[in-house]
């Protein structure tokens, strides 16, 4: 399990010219490791995540998910790859208000055509992993912000993705809860052996990351040693 971005360049129209969002970005994320990408607003973090999620096709470069290069794939093929191979944790949980925590996860299995009989057990295992097994039958309005984010994380893992992409998971949380959420993502990354990329503007919560890379003006700078995050 791995994620590879190679020489990725992405631009957007900007009046009569083009604005460069990603400038020759290369990134290798092995399975079972967490890479945090930090940078200010407008630095290219969201664009990097969208390209890694195959939601946007870059003008140049390749994206490879678990050995599958996405270049030339149809929309339907990309949608299937995302459904089965890529878990996305959005900044806002966007949970369905009428569903319980367990049902939020079970619906992901239904979308993937999996057996409803096994979905409940899988959902309960993941809720237990994020510390919410005893709240499985509560709806979003009965959960705290941190609990809703943990349901969001569990939901992204429901279909056993190869790659886990996490967008600003601590933006609405205080320092203690934010650090706990990142620590949880790191533990689940190792348990599920996902290749995980977490983007954020804040370094304060990232002690559990295997590596911290910095993006500015669309250019990614990666430390020479993968273990620098814990040492810094």
TrEMBL record:
InterPro entries registered for this protein in UniProt: AAA+_ATPase, ABC_transporter-like_ATP-bd, ABC_transporter-like_CS, ABC_transpr_LolD-like, MacB-like_ATP-bd, P-loop_NTPase
Protein keywords: ATP-binding, Nucleotide-binding, Transport
Annotated SMART domains: AAA
CDD domains attached to this UniProt entry: ABC_MJ0796_LolCDE_FtsE
GO molecular function: ATP binding; ATP hydrolysis activity; transmembrane transporter activity
Protein name per the record: Putative ABC transport system ATP-binding protein
Residues annotated as domain ABC transporter: 3-231
Classification lineage: Bacteria, Bacillati, Actinomycetota, Actinomycetes, Kitasatosporales
GO cellular component terms given for this protein: plasma membrane
